[in-house]
Amino acid sequence: MIDCLYFAWVRERIGLPRERVETSAATVMELVEELRAREPRYAAAFEDISALRVAIDQELADFDAALAGAREVAFFPPMTGG
Amino acid sequence: MIDCLYFAWVRERIGLPRERVETSAATVMELVEELRAREPRYAAAFEDISALRVAIDQELADFDAALAGAREVAFFPPMTGG
Amino acid sequence: MSVRVQSARFDAGAELNAFSAGLGNAGAVVSFTGVVRDRDQGGMVAMEIEHYPGMTEAAIAKILAEAEARWDLVRALVIHRHGRLEIGEPIMMVATASRHRVAAFEAAEFLMDYLKSRAPFWKKEIGAGDAAWVAAKDEDEDALGRWSPKKD
Amino acid sequence: MSVRVQSARFDAGAELNAFSAGLGNAGAVVSFTGVVRDRDQGGMVAMEIEHYPGMTEAAIAKILAEAEARWDLVRALVIHRHGRLEIGEPIMMVATASRHRVAAFEAAEFLMDYLKSRAPFWKKEIGAGDAAWVAAKDEDEDALGRWSPKKD
Questions:
Q1: Contact state of C119 with A79 under an 8 Å Cβ cutoff
Q2: Minimal CA–CA distance to C3: which of C72, C51, C71?
Q3: In which band, very low, low, confident or very high, does the pLDDT at D150 lie, cut at 50, 70 and 90?
Q4: In the predicted model, is pLDDT for residue A49 greater than 70?
């Protein structure tokens, strides 16, 4: 089980800020594929991976990063603070 | 007649902040030579020209600048504001 | 070093004065304040800032630690707001204090560059009848390049 | 654009807030404050700043005009004090406001670099039993080099 968090327009497209996901995905990308396959709103949110960023347990990561031991994976657009 | 102004340690070495000087010097350097010849305190103040800056009528200038028409010549060390 | 992530409005001038008090031998203080401005096309009503609680504070602390490692700073401060902000309100503030003005300036610019692209905040511009997420700019990502390779 | 040369103490925070009010579409505000600090060897009691009345204001106005010509500034401010200043008091302040943070930062650094070496101020450190004029640093003169050739 992994907590998936969604921010900004990723959250809006999927329609919720977080959810617990039952998965055996080995990498972020495998998790993304599973989510995409769920429903069109997920497919829409994850349509263009190059427009997304990911954090594993609150640290920025790559989409090919391993999920072993991860508790929390967050998906969001590039940051626009400051 | 030119108003000569002295600032910081130039003022302290010469012992006064300003004075009117009767001169026919064509350039700043000629004026410096005349002042140096006056008294030891002037010679001390103008000993090392490379440690001094000059302004003609409140604009930074070079020591070889012409004095034609100048009303006010100021001598001082490099600025240390900010 | 101080990090504050908050929804409450803050007073940039009061923060600057508190930051500058009792600095000892630090003579140079630099501040950056980001203020909510209208969109170029006008018609903006407010700004909404979303963030990632937990990660936000950790990411900013990490950026501050990196700045401390690179420059001789006596003090550094980051305040960043989230939630709804009206036009003219301060969004965030960075302040740095050092014995040398160049270090204070560079560290403040470094903090801004990294906060823009590495701290999990997302801005949304709220218009009278529309709302749009602010897109990240390539130039903001590119700005990080000037801080690498590591300098002393 | 605003220039103030004064002996009176000023409140940097209040100045920053006044400067940042009603900026319209300028979202980026940078400030630099110079504070009287003790000498490295300690024992300083106060600082005395001499200036060249008349030329000072003109020189600062010229530097500000140059900054305006180079960067897209909405507002800029220079305050510089003269006379006797106690340790911990603000010596001077520069503030810039722009739509872009890089412009605000660069313009503030430019103003500082030129004020240091081109505005007629001279600092004297007053100790308990001694006093010494602060020597200009080569690095301050060298700093001007980075602003030339002219950039847009």
A1: yes
A2: C51
A3: low
A4: yes
Closest CA–CA distance from residue A78 to any residue of chain C (Å): 6
Residue D150 maps to a domain: no
> Strand pairing partners for D85?
D47
Residue C83 inside a domain? The answer is: yes
Residues of chain D with C-beta less than 8 angstroms from the C-beta of C34: 27-29, 101
In a domain, D115, yes or no: yes
Residue-wise pLDDT for D66-110, tens only, equals: 999 999 999 999 999 999 999 999 999 999 999 999 999 999 999
Interface of C with D (CB under 8 A): 11-17, 20, 22-38, 40, 88, 90-91, 99, 101-102, 104-105, 108-109, 112, 143
Pairwise CB contact (< 8 Å): D37 & C23: yes
Residue D130, pLDDT above cutoff 80: yes
**Sequence-separated (6 or more) residues with CB below 8 Å from residue B68:** B26
The radius of gyration computed from the CA coordinates of chain D, to the nearest angstrom, equals: 16
Query: Model ipTM?
Result: 0.94
The Cα of B80 is separated from the nearest Cα of chain D by a number of Å equal to: 5
Place of tokens 């994850």: A46
CB-based contacts of C148: which residues, under 8 Å, 6+ apart?
Answer: none
The answer to whether residue D42 scores a pLDDT higher than 90 is no
Helix (H) / strand (E) element for D115: namely: helix D101-118
Best CA proximity match to A6, nearest among D75, C145, D39, C52: C52
Across the interface, whether the CB atoms of C16 and D11 are under 8 A apart is answered no
- Amino acid letter for position C73: L
Domains: count for chain C: 1
CA dist B53 and D119 (Å) reads 12
Q: Please write the tens of the pLDDT for every residue from B21-70.
A: 999 999 999 999 999 999 999 999 999 999 999 999 999 999 999 999 99
> Chains B, A in contact: 3+ Cβ pairs under 8 A?
no
CA–CA dist B16, B13 (Å, integer): 8
What is the least distance, in Å, from the CA of B52 to any CA of chain D? 11
The topology under which CATH files domain A2-76 is: Ubiquitin-like (UB roll) (3.10.20)
Counting one residue from B and one from D, how many pairs have CB atoms under 8 Å apart? 70
The 3-class SS string of D77-109 reads EEEEECEEEECCCEEEEEEEEECCHHHHHHHHH
In a domain, C152, yes or no: no
